[in-house]
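Reply to thread "Modeling small-molecule complexes from scratch"

Following up on the discussion above, here's a worked example others can learn from. I took a protein sequence and the SMILES for adenosine-5'-triphosphate and predicted the complex. Inputs first:
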Amino acid sequence: MAEVRLNDVQKVYPNGFKAIHGIDIDITDGEFIVLVGPSGCGKSTLLRMIAGLETVSDGEIHIGERMVNQLEPADRDIAMVFQNYALYPHMSCYDNMAYGLRNKGMPKDEIEKRVREAAEILELAQLLDRRPRQLSGGQRQRIAMGRAIVREPSVFLFDEPLSNLDAKLRVQMRVEIRKLQRNLGTTSVYVTHDQVEAMTMADRLVVMNEGVAEQIGTPIEVYERPATMFVAGFIGSPAMNFMDAKVEGEEVVVGGKLHFPMPNGTGALEAGREVSLGIRPEHLDLGGNGDVGLPIKVELVEHLGADTLVYGYLPWDTQNLVTLRMQGSQEFPAGHEITLTVSHDHLHLFDKQSGKRI
Amino acid sequence: MHKKVIFRHRWLPYALLFPQLAITIVFFIWPASQALYQSVLLEDAFGLSSKFVALENFIALFEDPHYLGSFKVTIVFSVAVAFLSMGFSLLLAVMADRVIKGSMAYKTLLIWPYAIAPAVSGVLWFFMFNPTVGINAWLLRQMGYDWNHYLDGGDALLLIIIASAWQQISYNFLFFLAGLQAIPRSLIEAAAIDGASPMKRFWTIIFPLLSPTTFFLLVVNIVYAFFGTFGVVHATTDGGPYGATSILVYKVFNDGFVGLDLGGSAAQSVILMAIVIGLTVVQFRYVERQVEY
Ligand SMILES: Nc1ncnc2c1ncn2[C@@H]1O[C@H](COP(=O)(O)OP(=O)(O)OP(=O)(O)O)[C@@H](O)[C@H]1O
Ligand SMILES: [Mg+2]
């Protein structure tokens, strides 16, 4: 059990590429933190720095009471689950799990006890004699989990551990991992690029973009009050609609025609300021009684079963599709004109230049 | 999966195979059959007539202490060459695997010895260890060891072992390096997190995972030491002193062409042939099937 603190952590690779631009995170004891972001944003790099597999170029990483920058991975009291599982192919599953304990010089019967216990929890008692190649992907995943938990580390690190599994197994494993982590109460850092995994598993999310932590917060905070346009566009599916707008007095005007009231909690803004107005597809209503109506010409309809996605254009902007997500199933011919409404507590306002929430 | 090629003309595949078949027949099958034939004949002292003696040549060989001695020398020599060469290559490969900058230069340099003819490499080492003018012999003398491969059988054997092993380092190095680079980095990282020291990581993870390569190279090196080192011996020690470096291939040549005991020499080459066939079978059975994880 331990806290993990990152203090202005930076990473410059030997080739001069700056992968991490200074990240601060305080992870409390027992917390499940998910690092999420698009490919190449530096999630793995950050995780591997915590693990000690990459050097820290600048800043400090603390695990518990200790500053671990200079410590070897083995001395950091962590366990890591790799994307490809990284099981030792020439050892039985039992030996895979026991390897780390043997290296610590733990007595044989204690090792046996811990491995059996972990196997019990993960339901892999019958698999212990097999080699990794004799297992399915899901079973390998469990062994990799087992190898992590037998060491009883203070921190678990996961690098996209579920991305090689099929969709159904992924859902099942994500629930299991979360349950297991709650029971053990071990501080965890989990990397994924799958926002559903991120939203469902995290106590707190760290949304990363190009080596910067754009927002750190609970899934609901991040969804309801995205700190930047990037976060707003990345979290939530389908992505948020953005419209260019101008501030005019107490209103935000889109395309010179649609007058939206200022979103809740926004102070007075100088007139003429260029902003971006964000509306989530699920907050648009078909012919409801929202505050403002958006006239949309339907372009395309997608049926997801439970939901229907409708894509269309505003009359003066044929560049940016507006997406509507509605419950149930409904058919619209292309070219059909509909009016969508939105309530003003669901409006997001961002500065056009900086992309920051206003 | 079998790829089946259909030829329009019946004779075309045979025509295409002909050059290879001709070479095999003229340079391998025919001499091999001659050796088999010779091995059961005994020539008279003047080489004028020969008579059929069945397996007597073979029986004589295995009763000959010189031949048995040569067998022992060959085994010591082969094992030493294989281990020395493979051990050293593995060390180099492990170090080259870590180098990022300029690794291409290292690799290129390390491959060069392979391009040198065995006889040349033998002579090279022969000079370096020459008791009167060789730099290595001089260095050894500074350290208090009186090196003389003209008189000391052990020194002579060591000399041809070093010369032969040096030749083979490049080849082994390439295979070991490829093997090392095929091991996923994450395995090594997992082991590092699991608290294994670099040494322990090497012996418990890397070395076992390299075992298919190691086994393949072991067979290749033994075959090389048995058959590919004639030039080294011939150019340096000529089997001496007192037969201390008379390995089997060298003895075949020496007994046949210097001693003119054609029957005995042929019998020796038949035995060598049997060994080659045995090693090839081992190689195909176990190596081609690759130890798979
Ligand atoms: N060894 C390295 N040397 C130089 N640049 C690197 C190195 N490793 C990674 N990078 C770069 O650092 C950036 C971050 O890489 P990282 O692996 O952390 O991304 P990621 O967020 O984990 O992406 P993914 O979701 O694809 O795994 C990338 O632009 C990558 O090209
Ligand atoms: Mg990654």
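What I'd highlight from this example: Chain B has one domain: 62-290. The pocket of magnesium ion (ligand 2) is lined by residues A 43-44 (CB under 6 Å). Questions welcome below.
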